[in-house]
């Protein structure tokens, strides 16, 4: 989840100029990197809630095995992630029952799906072929901030 309101963290450092102490404001270079790390941390949750929503729309329900096939990973991997997302209140699950989105999960899934659609449309409008735009939008959607997304929407109008 993007942190877009960061204007740039400023920290003070003390330096000495001509023998006197002077406070100097310096913009932290780590801000863009910490934002990227934060966005990486939420990628899995975003991908899974989006997939659950998509599978429910297509199949009427979503099971762990459906997610394993969707992501081409083992059911054990999916089970661990589903448990974590259940603990974080994004998904609801019980043994041998379909996976469901909670209200929190549904909200996130809708936001991710819309962001994905905007990024995909933007790439296609730039002239990227549909296949590559679909591949690239999968990664970009997690890292695009709200201001950039707004600019993309404006460009598409």
Verbal overview:
- This protein is α+β, with helices and mostly antiparallel strands and 157 residues long.
- The chain has one domain: Winged helix-like DNA-binding domain superfamily/Winged helix DNA-binding domain (Arc Repressor Mutant, subunit A).
- Helix content is 61%, strand content 13%.
- The strands form two sheets. Strands 1-2 form a two-stranded antiparallel ribbon. A two-stranded antiparallel ribbon has the order 3-4.
- Strand 3 and strand 4 form a beta hairpin.
- Helix 1 packs across helix 4, helix 2 packs across helix 3 and helix 4 packs across helix 6.
- The longest helix is centred in the first third of the chain and has 29 residues.
- The protein is globular, with a radius of gyration of 21 Å.
- The N terminus is likely disordered.
Helix content: 55-70%
Number of strands: 4
What is the CATH class?
Answer: Mainly Alpha
The order of strands across the largest sheet is: 1-2
What is the CATH homologous superfamily assignment? Winged helix-like DNA-binding domain superfamily/Winged helix DNA-binding domain
Distance between the termini: 25 Å
Question: How many separate domains make up the residues?
Answer: 1
**DSSP strand content:** 5-15%
Low-confidence stretches: 1-10
Please state the CA-atom Rg, rounded to the nearest Å.
Answer: 21 Å
């Amino acid at each position: 989840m993007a942190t877009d309101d960061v204007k740039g963290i400023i920290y003070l450092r003390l330096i000495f100029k001509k023998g006197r102490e002077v406070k100097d404001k310096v913009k932290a270079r780590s801000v863009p990197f910490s934002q990227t790390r934060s966005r990486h941390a939420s990628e899995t949750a975003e991908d899974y809630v989006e997939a659950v929503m998509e599978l429910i729309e297509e199949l009427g329900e979503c099971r762990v095995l459906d997610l394993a096939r969707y992501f081409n990973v083992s059911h054990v991997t999916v089970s661990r992630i589903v448990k974590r997302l259940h603990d974080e209140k994004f998904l609801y699950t019980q043994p041998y029952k379909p996976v469901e989105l909670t209200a929190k999960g549904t909200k996130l899934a809708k936001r991710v799906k819309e962001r994905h659609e905007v990024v995909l449309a933007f790439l296609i409008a730039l002239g990227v072929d549909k296949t590559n735009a679909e591949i690239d939008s999968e990664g970009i959607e997690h890292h695009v901030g709200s201001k950039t997304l707004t600019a993309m929407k404006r460009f598409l109008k």
